[in-house]
Design goal:
Tachylectin-2, Chain A; Jelly Rolls; about 0% helix; binds (Z)-L-Arabinonhydroximo-1,4-lactone
Length: about 500
């Protein structure tokens, strides 16, 4: 991937990317698991600069996540444009979920109520239409069934169409394309960890039979000394100039051995050339000058939110649901008000609103008023792996939750009144094999006062290699008791 590691085009926990183009506009969607709203949707005109325009599943009727465990909920989506509409198919892997399909004329929303697909098995559903207008739904395995996308009824029984390359596990993330004289079936295999890879096959019809590309896998970094690992789960798109590109997921492990990734699986971009009717994936790019058509202006992703808007911006995500009675920006205009559901530390009682950590070095600050409650600022991987600085009842404390252990690492009395709570995350260069990926420090200050650092913690315990699962860190505000209000939230990246 060139002499310097390319950056993701969508940094932070944006896994399982699916992309489509309409005219000169690209749209991309990612999986979102236990977070609500779900399935973030992005727009770009150059494949490098992406701006979030909404979330496809932003109503409880579309996204029942009540029983979703961490890394449950919404798995991989496929986003397509067909017959004047956007189609998004995905899997709600939580209780009462299953495969579902929503449509929209405007990808920014609103998206339709879900059409459930009881006859579509498994995960990673893909949609493709053939020349006769038949819709084929292909899922991990790799199996396929014809689908009536308007009613969700399957036409016939699912049948296996390819099992991937010999010996590779987890053939998943299928995408079917009609390109030239062939139908191409591209999949991920090897598992979404260090063995991840992308393979492809082609055949005369959407149902096959498929012959595997002799050069499979067409993308992998397994076993390579490469700063981007776990590369896989790709989707293809053709540019307006006829060039081909692929988006795919990758991780950037830090520290010593085995390497810990903390930002989750991020979205990368690479050019694709066709040789003898097979795609050859080039070096990943993040330099806009590598894009052969006019670039869009840099996207102003304002990351200082003063909560002056009546509704929360689309980047904000909550755990499993978001109800006005617990989370509102209208009760005290210009403030985010969080009302705890109970006073236990149980995850189901905590009310949380966060945004993905998108940079290996970054900082977040909030102005908090916990005069009638308890809450703070957290760095969360899942409910068993999170660090936070919290205040309430005249004290500020740093708490670390690592698996079954919960420890108050530092605390001190604080005066009544609003406080500025801060978390600073500094990527660490590995000093030896045992080094962690970064340091997570917490500080407190009175507004316009001096900052006091309370604790600096090893970030490896908030990594996927320790916690497991499919997500990445989310930095957010929370309430565990009473009412907690936030005047602003400021996220500053320290570079990629
Ligand atoms: C997703 C599967 C995968 O459904 O991980 O990396 C699963 N690939 O395709 C969850 O993201």
């Amino acid at each position: 991937m060139g002499d310097t590691a390319p950056h993701p085009v969508l940094p932070g926990f944006h896994p399982d990317p699916s992309v489509c183009r309409v005219g000169e506009d690209y749209y991309l969607a990612c999986s979102s698991f236990e977070y609500f709203p779900g399935v973030p949707v992005f727009h770009s005109r150059d494949l490098v600069h992406w701006r979030q325009i909404g979330n496809a599943l932003d109503r409880p009727s579309q996204l029942p996540l009540t029983q979703a465990w961490s890394s449950g909920g919404i798995y991989a989506p496929t986003l397509r444009h067909h017959d004047g509409r956007f189609w998004l198919i995905t899997t709600n892997a939580s209780t009462g979920g299953g495969n579902l399909l929503v449509t929209a004329t405007d990808p920014a929303g609103p998206w339709s109520e879900p059409v459930m697909l009881p006859g579509v098995p498994g995960i990673d559903p893909d949609l493709a239409w053939d020349e006769d207008g038949s819709c084929w739904c292909t899922v991990a395995g790799v199996s396929q069934v014809r689908l009536d996308p308007e009613t969700g009824k399957t036409l016939g029984e699912p049948h296996r169409i390819w099992s991937g390359t010999r010996g590779a596990k987890a053939p998943e993330a299928p995408h079917l394309y009609r390109i030239g004289e062939y139908w191409y079936l591209m999949i991920a295999e090897g598992g979404t960890e260090r063995g991840h890879a992308v393979s492809i096959a082609r055949g005369p019809a959407p149902t096959g039979p498929f012959e595997a590309c002799p050069a499979n896998p067409i993308l992998t970094h397994r076993g390579q000394e490469h700063p981007v690992q776990n590369t896989g789960h790709a989707d293809l798109v053709q540019g307006p100039d006829g060039s081909w590109w692929t988006v795919f997921l990758g991780v950037r492990p830090g520290g010593g051995t085995p390497g810990w990734h903390v930002l989750g699986r991020e979205t990368f971009l690479a050019p694709v050339e066709w040789v003898d009717g097979w795609p050859v994936v080039g070096e990943a790019v993040s330099d806009p000058s590598r894009i052969p058509w006019p670039l869009q202006e840099d996207v102003d992703e304002s990351v200082l939110d003063d909560f002056e808007d009546n509704a929360l911006r689309p980047q904000w995500i909550s755990l499993r649901d978001r109800r006005e009675e617990f989370c509102t920006t209208t009760e005290r205009p210009g403030w985010l008000t969080l009302r705890a559901r109970g006073s236990s530390l149980d995850a189901s009682d905590v009310v949380f609103v966060g945004r993905r950590q998108q940079h290996q070095t970054c900082r977040a600050d909030v102005l908090i008023d916990a005069s009638v409650g308890r809450g703070g600022l957290a760095v969360r991987l899942d409910e068993h792996h999170h660090y936070e600085i919290e205040t309430g009842d005249g004290e500020v404390r740093v708490v670390a939750r690592i698996g079954p252990l919960r420890t108050v690492v530092a605390s001190q009395p604080v005066p009544d009144g609003p406080l500025v709570l801060s978390v600073r995350i500094d990527e660490k260069q590995a000093e030896d094999a045992r080094s962690g990926p970064d340091t997570v420090s917490f500080a407190v200050a009175e507004p316009d006062g001096e900052q006091t650092t309370l604790a600096a913690l090893d970030g490896r315990y908030l990594s996927t290699e320790v916690a497991g699962g499919f997500t990445g860190r989310v930095i957010g505000m929370y309430a565990t008791a009473g009412i907690v209000r936030f005047d602003w939230f400021d996220y500053v990246s320290g570079g990629f």
